[in-house]
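Re: beginner question about structure tokens

> Can someone show what the tokenized structure looks like for a real chain? I only ever see the sequence side.

Sure, here's an example I had lying around. Input first:
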Amino acid sequence: MSTPRHQALSIVLDRKSPAPVDHPAHVSELFAANVFTGEVMQKHLSKDVYRALQNAINQGETVGRELAEAVASGMKVWAIERGATHYTHWFQPLTGLTAEKHDSFFEVKDGRAMESFSGDNLAQKEPDASSFPSGGIRNTFEARGYTAWDPSSPAFIFENPFGRTLCIPTIFVSYTGEALDYKAPLLKSIEVLNKAAVDVCHYFDRSVRRVTPTLGIEQEYFLVDRAFVELRPDLSLAGRTVIGAPPARGQQLEDHYFGSIPERAYAFMKEMEIEAYKLGIPITTRHNEVAPGQFECAPQFEELNIAIDHNSLLMDLMDRVARKHNFRVLLHEKPFAGINGSGKHNNWSMGTDNGKNLLSPGNAPKDNLQFLTFFINVIKAVHDHADLLRAVIASASNDHRLGANEAPPAIISTFIGAQLTKVLDEIEKPSRKKSSDTPKPYLKLGIPKIPPLLLDNTDRNRTSPFAFTGNKFEFRAVGSSANSAGSMVALNTIVANQLMEFKKTVERKVTRGKKKDVAILEVLREYVAESRNIRFEGNGYSKEWEEEAARRGLNNIKQTPRALDAYVSKSTLEVFTRLGIFSETELRARHEIRLEQYIKKIDIEARILDEMISQQVVPAAIRYQKTLVENVEGLKDIGIKTGYSGQVALIEEISKEVDGLLNSLNALRKELASEHHGDDMRAHGIAYGEKVVPLMASIRAASDRLENIVADDVWPVPKYREMLFIK
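And the corresponding structure tokens:
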């Protein structure tokens, strides 16, 4: 029997990778070929213009229209030389995706055709603000919004087989000035953190003039053949499977992680990396992840703003290249039940303009007071604003992942390792015993020919949502499909606020006669004691940790609608408005947008589930049941009276499952149509989380039982074993 599913199987089994893409032998020859880098600027801008632009970027000054005009002139020449015919303001609205509206360089003026690109075109454009999420900031009839050039993130040329476009990274704000994107508050948070961190650095080094947060984003994803995805409405429209029985073999053999990369996946990775290199994205790592069909790529660390832009660009690039290779990239946090989901591990640190990593302990962290100051203040910030960090990672998709067997739990905690735990314990309660605080830097394995391993200051704890990993903090709980700017704005801001509070407290002690170092140590001692409950060194996946966290007073908010309350909590409103990152209007708008997105995603998934059950699963089950009935009746017709009780039992089981499915579907439809939620978005979201999501889970369970009963040749959609293991 040739069904669409079996036809897809034949197509996939015959797939061949595209011909390899030619590229230089050395990546360095290719890197940033399509980026308006400093080196390119020096070729296309005058020395005075280049110097003025760099000063504006480095000192945070506004770029005037005269300077923008000069930059636009050089940028246009370079872009056209590279084959660009159009330009766009490339921005990151609150959809979580990127946005662009292309305009041509071509212009007819006084009957004469010419290529034109002015400073005004570079500095500002006007996309329709009412068509993007605004949380009530913009009404439908209030369309005006502005994009404004971010000169600190270099322009780039995005190319495809049909043309090239100059992309200009920008912020996106409403006509009345509220941020409608991720970048505008990110830039504010970076500047606030810079000022707060520089002030604290001056306790230790007066030469520091700037502190810049850095970020390295590990991106996990799944690759599934397009033919399979196109036969599954759930994967096509929601990015995850709403039905699907687990295969006999999943990831239990633990053989996929770091295994040999399949040829087609390797071909995709290679071309994706080439395109990324052209755009200045410094990808250095690729490997198989834990789940079958799951992979990861990671770049070098970059300045945080650029790292966010590059990750947003990378997600778009991955999708485009994957389609060329007849794959679909799945960035959903949990596309397949029962196996690992995907995250976006954000490795965050702070560096000074004289080359110092403020979170690098050195060999003797106990003696490194500057390191301890920043390290302990970060932990204190996480302790005081844990619920906010839970809110910024919350989504309908990440709810499926958080707390599962491979992901950090919904409880926010931080891991720092045994050595640093001892250091903090000693700070909190000094011991009179003399002890060596310089660790053995090498681990001797005792294996001939194998050199000793240089030890880090901490082990790693992959169960921790916020772990210290040697010279940075790794925020592991961010979802794979998320724009990391949301979580980084929160982290930058709460750390900046904490550093300001630290400096105020130290200054009060100094004015009362305490020596500076003594005052610093006393404040750190208080912070260590106050934030002790947020530190956890054990298995974050365990039930015991949930119980222990409850005893410590740490929240375990498992569903998004309640987690999002932290956006509008008293402490969040106070900190973010005082520091100028968000107005109260902007925070309340983001709260509403996130609730609305949650409701819409659950609603889409529920309706897809309804469609697949009623139009595919139930008909397939009845079709198979009919075959069994006809077989039993045929046996009876030829005089066989026994030997088919198992078939009758199977017929009855199918009837029971189908009847239960249809009843559950009716309950789901009634809940979706219910109006008792009213206009209260939060109540609506909570009802979806507490009523719709469990109904969907019970419907899925029944469907998955039918998948294991119904004959394979009748089942209508690709199965897990096919999507995950056939490449």
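Each token stands for a local structural state, so reading them left to right follows the chain. The domain at 31-181 is CATH 3.10.20.70 (Ubiquitin-like (UB roll)).
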